[in-house]
Amino acid sequence: MLTVEGVRVRYGPLEALHGVSLTVAAGDVVAVVGRNGAGKSTLVRAVAGYLRPSGGRVLWDGVDVTRAPIGQRAAAGVMLIPDEGGVFRSLTVRENLEVFAGAGRSDLDEALDTFPDLRALLRRRAVLLSGGEQQMLALARALLAPWRLLMVDELSQGLAPYLAARLYAVLAELAAAHPDRAVVLAEPHPRAALRFVGRVHVLRRGELAATASPSDFDAATL
Ligand SMILES: Nc1ncnc2c1ncn2[C@@H]1O[C@H](COP(=O)(O)OP(=O)(O)OP(=O)(O)O)[C@@H](O)[C@H]1O
């Protein structure tokens, strides 16, 4: 489904990714781990189209989308929840969900059934939500879009461990229920995510340093 081939990304004079290659197949739930600054966010942003690689290729269903705009990739099912969550802070919870559900679609039940805590918050502005509630809203919104590849950058950031575990479990269940879908978790602190993923890609200083099964993954390799 996704093939990343030798992708390089530069920020001005700094090259943050030095030719990273990996694949994600339908049904996969994978973690991309690495220390702060290793290049995790850069990689998922390049896949989603927020950043233009300076080298290499991103293939989606075999089609070269390296230079395709974000909207075109999103329409094809490639979705990123960025590390700042990406919710519209001045809109209410309901409005945030409706924007993503698309014109004419009023059925928010699928997302609200998955995150029932949001039902009581529908009229609250996103800016007033706690960090955990904002993460739930960001994920709930993503569920309303027609995603096939969902990448979440630092899902566990600022969350209580029980809540992070619940959100990982929701994503893993969604991937299991829809074998044509895949989930990529970019995580600096991978321990809590490991039991939900089938594979771990370790990024180190902009390079893919290792790929391991969660049981073989050794945090010392970070
Ligand atoms: N907008 C930017 N301008 C310049 N350099 C950047 C920019 N964004 C990231 N970098 C640099 O690129 C490298 C990779 O950063 P990136 O954010 O991808 O790492 P990360 O693994 O996601 O880290 P973290 O876990 O801290 O989010 C780092 O050296 C970082 O300083």
Automatic annotation (TrEMBL):
<protein>
    <submittedName>
        <fullName>ABC transporter ATP-binding protein</fullName>
    </submittedName>
</protein>
<feature type="domain" description="ABC transporter">
    <location>
        <begin position="2"/>
        <end position="222"/>
    </location>
</feature>
<dbReference type="GO" id="GO:0005524">
    <property type="term" value="F:ATP binding"/>
</dbReference>
<dbReference type="InterPro" id="IPR027417">
    <property type="entry name" value="P-loop_NTPase"/>
</dbReference>
<dbReference type="Pfam" id="PF00005">
    <property type="entry name" value="ABC_tran"/>
</dbReference>
<dbReference type="InterPro" id="IPR052156">
    <property type="entry name" value="BCAA_Transport_ATP-bd_LivF"/>
</dbReference>
<comment type="similarity">
    <text>Belongs to the ABC transporter superfamily.</text>
</comment>
<keyword id="KW-0067">ATP-binding</keyword>
<keyword id="KW-0547">Nucleotide-binding</keyword>
<keyword id="KW-0813">Transport</keyword>
<dbReference type="InterPro" id="IPR003593">
    <property type="entry name" value="AAA+_ATPase"/>
</dbReference>
<dbReference type="InterPro" id="IPR003439">
    <property type="entry name" value="ABC_transporter-like_ATP-bd"/>
</dbReference>
<keyword id="KW-0029">Amino-acid transport</keyword>
<dbReference type="InterPro" id="IPR017871">
    <property type="entry name" value="ABC_transporter-like_CS"/>
</dbReference>
